[in-house]
């Protein structure tokens, strides 16, 4: 009895509720009919709490400022004389028209430029110049120079109002895109959390009681009707149903769950009503664990990001130095107005917002795309390292295999049919909860066999089980059962079971009234997806190895079936990390794929540690990446995404850096003697184009196919 709830109750009840009519299935598009949970923000309202240029900024803030800045920029650009000269048209003139660019441009500067001005001031105070300071410097110089021109001071022609407005609008757009990408993974998971039901049907002595999900405790028994979502993690206590687990695994096909199977909060029972014993609630559920992993991924920094920050600091000093040198040189040449014009142009177009977006935007989009594919990147460095991996080391049990026995082969004695043999074995095992029993019963069910009713079931510890079927005493057990009964296996059966044992299969004999009727082999079932994963990795030039604590013949059988390159068998969990070190000593960079629990030391030692499988057990500190589902093909998603991201990083870096290297000297006038100069207008246009190219190039990452089922 639980005393922590509002009313005392036990987790038992009659069967009336079990057979109650199922509620109509809700419309999937309508969710479950309630709003977000406390603390849940809408997708565009995510606030970035990590350190750096976006600290305290929200996606909505950048979005709102962008749209307003864009609306104000249109008339600023249209009425700008410099822009008109550039395109060869004369802006319309009427009383006050000349003040449209200065007034609206000032509004854009003060409102749209505020995040960059504040960020630049913070970087200046911290003596850590970066992107925000460069942007702030560029828009401030453009603002001052434009007002000087508008007021007719000094006779300068530095009408940068249109460039200032476009620069602010483009930077707001770029940061909005980046922030949205950064928040998308968390936003998608927040949306999943919002789909959790507010209430649950708790089974008590008095029947069922509707309670808040927050009142549930581990050990409670709840009723989950057809079409309803799981309120918490648990195991099926009674009944069976097909569950939609696409929210966790990304796989649209429903999964059968029956007595003893684990079910996850938020998944949907699609066809039947089941009773579920709660095992985890609140922050202990699988969903909560996945949300924490995404938060860690967003908070992690990467070497590439640090490289971009260092590049920004360098470019700040480069721009400032180039500006000073430009002013001094042109002043010494006797042209102070030209010195001012060139210096202002250099400082405005040196703003490296293209470089600022080159790497962060690629990483942000990559992280988002990975999360949507069920690949949760805890450490962004893993995304960069994965492209260099030379060998993927898979743990066998539960990773390449299902971690549960499966009937592989049957051998019947003379005069006994194979179907009869399996039906008898299933009849005896029907009342057993052992995984082997479930495998035999499941195999009979899959073949559509008519399983007779058994009575007098009993378990013989370490030997097998027995029951009475159609008046005969039928026993199912291993070699120890034969020894105890002093029964010899028929020669024709021995010829079949010998090879089974040689490859490490579990062999069970079926006996009726002391006579051996046949044998059944059971082996850890190899995942169908594992074959595709191994072949695809090898096609990409990556070696595949397998590690297991199982006997060598068992490991070799699985390796031969999957065509694995190298096998480490009979390895203790404590020694798995040594095998990783051994591969590393052979100049391999290693990605270790395991269940995240027994494999923790190896996961930590590998260049990339990947924990596979949905559930709270995968939320381990040692893994860099967590695969939300159990599909080993998701490792390919990491490989392909890492390689594509690296290409985009370099493409963007080359483009953005090349722009600054070429445009700044031209703006400074190093080729003025040859009649080659870069006008302020042309420099501004090139800067805007550079930013757009970088942003669009990063967006191309969204075309990378990451669905494991589509990867070849």
Topology overview:
Elements: H1 59-78, H2 81-87, H3 100-112, H4 114-125, H5 131-150, H6 161-194, E1 199-204, E2 207-212, E3 221-224, E4 233-238, E5 241-244, H7 246-249, E6 255-257, E7 262-263, E8 268-269, E9 274-280, H8 286-299, H9 303-332, H10 336-349, H11 353-358, H12 360-372, E10 375-377, H13 380-385, E11 391-395, H14 396-400, E12 401-412, H15 418-429, H16 435-446, E13 454-460, E14 464-469, E15 472-477, H17 479-485, H18 491-502, E16 506-512, E17 515-526, H19 528-539, E18 543-547, H20 552-562, E19 566-568, H21 576-585, E20 590-594, H22 600-605, E21 608-612, E22 625-627, H23 634-668, H24 680-699
Parallel strand pairs: 11-18, 11-20, 18-19, 20-21, 21-22
Antiparallel strand pairs: 1-2, 1-3, 3-9, 4-7, 4-9, 5-6, 5-8, 10-22, 12-17, 13-14, 14-15, 15-16, 16-17
What does this structure look like?
It is a single chain. With 712 residues, the chain is an alpha+beta fold. It is 47% helix and 17% strand. The protein has 24 helices and 22 strands. The strands form 4 sheets. A 7-stranded mixed beta sheet has the order 10-22-21-20-11-18-19, sandwiched between helices. A 6-stranded antiparallel beta sheet has the order 2-1-3-9-4-7, with no helix packed on it. A 6-stranded antiparallel beta sheet has the order 12-17-16-15-14-13, with helices on both faces. Helix 1 (59-78) packs antiparallel against helix 6 and helix 3 (100-112) runs parallel beside helix 6. The longest helix is centred in the last third of the chain and has 35 residues, at 634-668. The protein is elongated. 47% of the residues are buried. Mean pLDDT is 78; it is low at 1-53, 297-302 and 614-620.
